[in-house]
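Objective 1b: paired records.
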Amino acid sequence: MKKEILLPLIALFSGVLLTLMIMSNSYLSTFTSPLHASWLTHGTGAVVALIIWLTVKTHLPQRRAGKKIPLWCYLGGIPGAFTVLLAAVTVNSPLSLSGSIVLMLAGQIVTGLIIDHFGLMGLTRRKVTGRDGLTLLLLFSGCILIIAGK
């Protein structure tokens, strides 16, 4: 399968998995607490990631010699932990799963545009255009429709 087709399908599937993770963690938090559910979710994820790594480690690309990894690259787990914790709170609120997901998506897109525009974290700068502004307008209109339609 061509990369042009496969990569968007992988990204779409990742979104499905993210929604299932948020839903199951949020439901788990109703039996325990958001913090306890977050610990359980991340513990389970760590075990699965370890199993996958042990299975495929010989097929992974090697680290580039001479390239120093920026320290901030190791901090990805911090927003991940807060995402799982905060999602457990919002999904179990009047926002529900769909309202929480659409607002999380909006936050991701706005943050992505800011990072692209300023070339933050070593990424190539990409000018934000009027088309991006229209996209944001439509995105937030959709958020309002989804949340107000409940």
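Objective 1b, second protein:
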Amino acid sequence: MKFFKNYVLPFLVLFVVMLIDGHLSNLLTNLFSNDIHLLSHLLLILILYVSIDFSENINFVILLLIGLLYDAYYFHIIGLSTLLLPLSGSVVSKYNSVLMTNRVSRFLSVAILVFFFEIATFALANVTQLTRMSFTDFVVYTMAPTMVFNLLFFLLIRPILEKIYL
């Protein structure tokens, strides 16, 4: 029972959030014009809180599996999330004591995580020729709206996450 509660349940929660995240991003993209691409990063926000309870190794393995599933389900190419999620999780695990000290640092941590993930995903997608969008268009039509949405969304769900994880 302890194994299920400590390892399987958090993995299942992250998996369900990964699915919700992708479908929420799809819904947001369809609600706005074709130019604006709003992406939900609820998974990254949750990683910040879930990583409190895990060692770096367990965190890495769980996020590697989630990254593989994310890539297979959404990108149909293994690599982007398989690399970035465990890397993000490792940084969060290593600096968790600093990142989670107060509400302002948690807010800034979400901003940094979303920024890092978006920039790294864009860079890797450009290198692998999965996108032909210019960097300027990316910043204006994807990055800025995504940052604003995720930071507002974080402020909305922060009290719930703090009750559960802190």
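The chain has a mean pLDDT of 89. The longest helix spans residues 135-165.
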